[in-house]
Amino acid sequence: MSELKIKEKGVVVPGEVLAEGMDFLPSNGTYRLKDKILAKKLGIMKTEGKVIKLIPLSGKYLPKKHDVIIGRIIDVNFSGWSVDTNSAYAAMLPIKDATSEFIRRGADLTKFFDIGDYIVTQITNVTSQNLIDLTMKDQGLRKLREGRILKINPHKVPRVIGKQGSMVSMIKNATGCQITVGQNGVIWLQGDPKGEIIAIEAIKIIEEKSHINGLTDEIQKFLEKNKVTDANEKYSEKVKVK
Amino acid sequence: MKEENKNYIIKYLKEGRRFDGRKIDEFREVEIEYDISKSAEGSARVKIGGTEVLAGVKMAIESPYPDTPDQGNLMVGAELLPLSNPEFESGPPSIDSIELSRVVDRGIREAKAIDTKKLVIEKGEKVWSIMIDIVPINDEGNLFDAAGLAAIAALKTTKFPEYKDDKIDYKKKTNKNLPLNKVPIPITILKIGEYFIVDPSIEEQKNIDARLTVTTTSDGQLCALQKGGDMPLTSEDIEKMMDLAILKSGNLRKILSGDKK
């Protein structure tokens, strides 16, 4: 007697009935109320066999274990640093996980990270009370020195990265920028100003049109178009000089 | 971190660009909407990019100030709502909100934009008093220019309410416009390093050396100046900034007169 009430890939709002009957199982972003399965968030419904899940379209970042994120130092304590994770919960970076250097008791911790610094960091643990522990002891985890910070909807991060990083490496190659994408929707990029402006524009297009098919082609076209005008500009400048 | 940000902005400016891809002296898109409030005598909404400011004009009959018995009263108030910028706090007016209202007030007052002598009903006893309220809805930088533009746009649409037997009927508006002489427009120029920029974003506003708000009228007459920021300005700097401000105010003036109903 169980049946789906919403079509596959349909957009649902919180409280909407997704399925009736006990044959289906609620998963991410859904919950069971008596014999119905309802949506918890605004998102797109997907089914995998008997499991119903929801891909959220909007909302804040929810911290998850092993996520690599970009955080901002908001406070320096005795035992470590408080970090803003672009979510509703602040995180803690303890001294022992911050650096491999020896830190003397009572040393000035701002030498390592100061308030306002951005860091690439990994979540080691999230408790049931949403207390977040961070670490800096892994490959690629570092303090970010110069560059631009960009914030996007954290649910669009997978599209910005692409399959095995295809999208982000395409932007990197086209614009000559270094780009780091945090799972919390914070993006850091560094390059020359023109490249950065194009890269930011490309990322904004991805965020806006993340749902359409053939996004990769569109971004490729966009990047090529801007590359050509860029080269033209340089060419015309040379002509003028002569 | 502040130094780094500033150097990064300067790196962009060297290439003639800003963080959002604009040119150094380029404004964001400016939009003006008139008569947005039914209860105010005049109102306007100004959008400069993502920055949005509302201005409303209320009129009342009061006794004039003792030193100007033959002139109407003018008051400008600004409230920086916490909803417009997470750094604004509710409570008593902050230094920034006082500065904002005073810059707008000074522009309108010193340009003699309103013919205050025509606001007298009974000399020394009764005059119209004009109250302009400025409320930012969203702050993405450049509140000064947006607020100044919103105030003058609201004044342009202001109509006297009906006045009969010593009573004002706010529900009935007459066809009589507020006597306006001039249109003062403030333009804020920021100095970062050796560069002068207009229409700053929040990031740029935080990393300035100095800023100068220049209010001019349509004939290029200077009405008011307000300097901010920690660093000094040389006289050449100020001259350059004023020239740029007069140039940029022309564009805003076109938008203001083009949209007028």
In words, what does this structure look like?
The complex is a heterodimer of chains A (242) and B (261). With 242 residues, chain A is of the alpha+beta class. Chain A folds into three domains: 54 residues, RNA polymerase II/Efflux pump adaptor protein, barrel-sandwich hybrid domain (OB fold (Dihydrolipoamide Acetyltransferase, E2P), Beta Barrel); 77 residues, OB fold (Dihydrolipoamide Acetyltransferase, E2P) (Beta Barrel), CATH 2.40.50.140; 84 residues, Ribosomal Protein S8, Chain: A, domain 1 (2-Layer Sandwich), CATH 3.30.1370. Chain A is built from four helices and 17 strands. Chain A has a five-stranded mixed beta barrel. In chain A, strands 1-3-6-5 form a four-stranded antiparallel β-sheet, with no helix packed on it. Chain A has a four-stranded mixed β-sheet with strand order 2-7-8-4, with no helix packed on it. Chain B is an alpha+beta fold. Chain B has a single domain, classed as 2-Layer Sandwich (Ribosomal Protein S5, domain 2). Chain B has five helices and twelve strands. In chain B, a hairpin with a 3-residue loop joins β5 and β6. In chain B, α2 crosses α3. Chain B is elongated. The chains are: A alpha+beta (242), B alpha+beta (261).
Walk me through the topology.
The complex is a heterodimer of chains A (242) and B (261).
Chain A: E1 3-4, E2 11-12, E3 17-20, E4 25-26, E5 30-33, E6 36-39, E7 43-48, E8 51-56, E9 68-76, E10 80-84, E11 90-94, E12 118-126, E13 132-135, E14 143-144, E15 148-151, H1 157-161, H2 166-175, E16 178-181, E17 186-190, H3 193-208, H4 215-241
Parallel strand pairs in A: 4-8, 11-13
Antiparallel strand pairs in A: 1-3, 2-7, 3-6, 5-6, 7-8, 9-10, 9-12, 10-11, 12-13, 12-14, 15-17, 16-17
Helix pairs in contact in A: 2-3, 2-4, 3-4
Chain B: H1 2-14, E1 30-34, E2 42-48, E3 51-62, E4 73-78, H2 95-110, E5 120-122, E6 126-138, H3 143-157, E7 159-164, E8 167-177, E9 185-192, E10 195-198, H4 202-206, E11 210-216, E12 222-228, H5 235-258
Parallel strand pairs in B: 4-6
Antiparallel strand pairs in B: 1-2, 2-3, 3-6, 5-6, 7-8, 9-10, 9-11, 11-12
Helix pairs in contact in B: 2-3
